[in-house]
Amino acid sequence: MAVGKKRKKKGNFIKRNFIAIAIMLVLGSYSTMVILKQQSMLSNLKQEEAQILDELSLKEQELAKIEKEIKDAETESYIENVAREELDLVRENDIVYRFKDEDDSNNDVNEDGVKP
Predict the structure, then answer these.
(1) Which residues are within 8 A (CB) of 14 and not within 5 positions of it... i.e. 6 or more apart?
(2) Residue 79 and residue 114: Cα distance in Å, rounded?
(3) Cα(61)–Cα(79) distance, rounded to whole angstroms?
(4) What does the alpha-carbon distance between residue 68 and residue 115 come to, in Å, rounded to a whole number?
(5) Which one of 45, 68, 90, 99 counts the least CB within 10 Å of its CB?
């Protein structure tokens, strides 16, 4: 009879521990879901980090370019270059060539700035 009692206890293992097994399955499923969600979030954060690092690199390059322009702006050659190109200024002994456009034919002026 002892053998029969052991079988009876083995058969009742699932029935006796059904709630514990169900809780373990629910917790296992929940844990798996949480881990997968965290992996997805981690992947998204790594992509965002890479994008931000790229933007940072571009901003650092822009900053270096601006700092170089500021440093160059302190030199006389830079100031002279800006004055010549952007403000159309000339030195005292420079020769200035002016070309007429076809549209400017009505606005002819002589050397003194007076229309003939």
Answers:
(1) 21
(2) 32
(3) 24
(4) 47
(5) 99
